[in-house]
């Protein structure tokens, strides 16, 4: 996958806002990896802020909807992983400022 496509996918994922925190999943650092096959099969490897996150299924659904907006994407698989464990060090400067995290 080329950098332009990766940027397009990340841009689409920036529209997915964690309903509890009010910050998008990219700036929260929840997206660990993206892959896109030649035939339009996208795989998103990501985590959630906590294992018991009640918004997990809703966030996965929003990720799929955001990526289906891109014409190159035919199918989306979202893999939720727990390693590496998410922490505030994964967050962008913007997310830390928005949430008042130091």
UniProtKB/TrEMBL annotation:
Pfam families named in the record: FeS_assembly_P (PF01883)
SUPFAM superfamilies: Fe-S cluster assembly (FSCA) domain-like (SSF117916)
Residues annotated as domain MIP18 family-like: 10-78
Name of this chain's protein: MIP18 family-like domain-containing protein
């Amino acid at each position: 996958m080329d950098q332009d496509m990766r940027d397009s996918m990340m841009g689409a994922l920036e529209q997915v806002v964690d309903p509890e925190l009010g910050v998008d999943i990219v700036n929260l650092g929840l997206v660990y990896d993206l892959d896109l096959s030649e035939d339009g099969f996208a795989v998103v490897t990501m985590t959630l802020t906590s294992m018991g996150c009640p918004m997990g299924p809703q966030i996965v659904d929003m990720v799929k909807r955001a990526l289906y907006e891109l014409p190159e994407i035919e199918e989306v698989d979202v893999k939720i992983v727990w390693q590496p464990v998410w922490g505030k060090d994964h967050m962008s400067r913007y997310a830390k400022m928005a949430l008042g995290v130091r």
